[in-house]
Amino acid sequence: EVIRLGLCDYREDWNERHGEESSYMFRIDKNYVVDATRHGNYARFMNHSCGPNCTAKVIDELGQSKIVIYTKRDIKAFEEITYDYKFPLEENKIPCWCGAVNCRKYLN
């Protein structure tokens, strides 16, 4: 579901108050976000890694923004598929436990 950026904080607060522990949002540009918390495919469950095997890009297809996942290298069978969430820097730090050799220790 594509929503305006300003609606994200409201939805995250609402989700927390109603027992939702996770939000699955992906920023498309400075104005819009895809909220896959209740809709979407299995890609919404991809985890973060500071040393990911994939990268996410937003492309334009016939006037619509699409999120596309590209591999950065060959992925072995049963290996977790990950990408770098690239959260903006904030004062309240979210710990990272990805286990990558180059782990930044925080998601933001």
Give me the secondary-structure topology.
Elements: E1 2-4, H1 6-17, E2 25-27, E3 32-35, E4 47-48, E5 54-61, E6 64-71, E7 82-83
Parallel strand pairs: 4-7
Antiparallel strand pairs: 1-3, 2-3, 5-6
Q: Which percent range fits the helix content?
A: 10-25%
Note the overall shape.
globular
SSE order: EHEEEEEE
The poorly predicted ranges are: none
Order of strands, main sheet, comes to: 1-3-2
Distance between the termini: 24 Å
Instruction: Find the structural class using helix and strand composition.
Output: alpha+beta
The percent range for strand residues is 25-35%
The biggest sheet amounts to: 3 strands, antiparallel
Number of helices: 1
C-alpha-based Rg, rounded: 15 Å
Q: Averaging pLDDT over every residue, what do you get?
A: 90
Number of strands: 7
Describe the structure.
- The protein is globular, with a radius of gyration of 15 Å.
- It has 108 residues and is of the alpha+beta class.
- The protein contains one helix and seven strands.
- Strand 5 and strand 6 form a beta hairpin.
- The relative contact order is 0.17.
- The chain has a three-stranded antiparallel β-sheet with strand order 1-3-2. The protein has a two-stranded parallel ribbon with strand order 4-7. A two-stranded antiparallel sheet has the order 5-6.
